[in-house]
Amino acid sequence: MSTPGWATTLVHGALATHAVPAPPDVRGTAAGMPFHEAMRLRAAAHHARRVYPGALGELVARELREQADFGRELAGDGLAARLASEVLRLPAAPAT
Known about the structure:
Number of helices: 4
Radius of gyration: 26 Å
Strand content: under 5%
Order of helices and strands: HHHH
Distance between the termini: 88 Å
Largest sheet: none
Structural class: mainly alpha
Number of strands: 0
């Protein structure tokens, strides 16, 4: 009488075919955003909520914040940097 396969696994451990493969060695080469630029985008996102009330301000703030969180500009066309410059140029609405 031979030993069942499930018993052999219990005694000797999992077979090589059931082993979990090692994760791939992936290393990104993309250049990250400089810290001061990410902070500038965050400041512009905060300022956008005060300059543009309502949904428009929320949309602009979310986009700038996500660009800063991701650490690099997705499109590569400088839109986030231009948007931050325009937002930071506008005077804040007076507090009521």
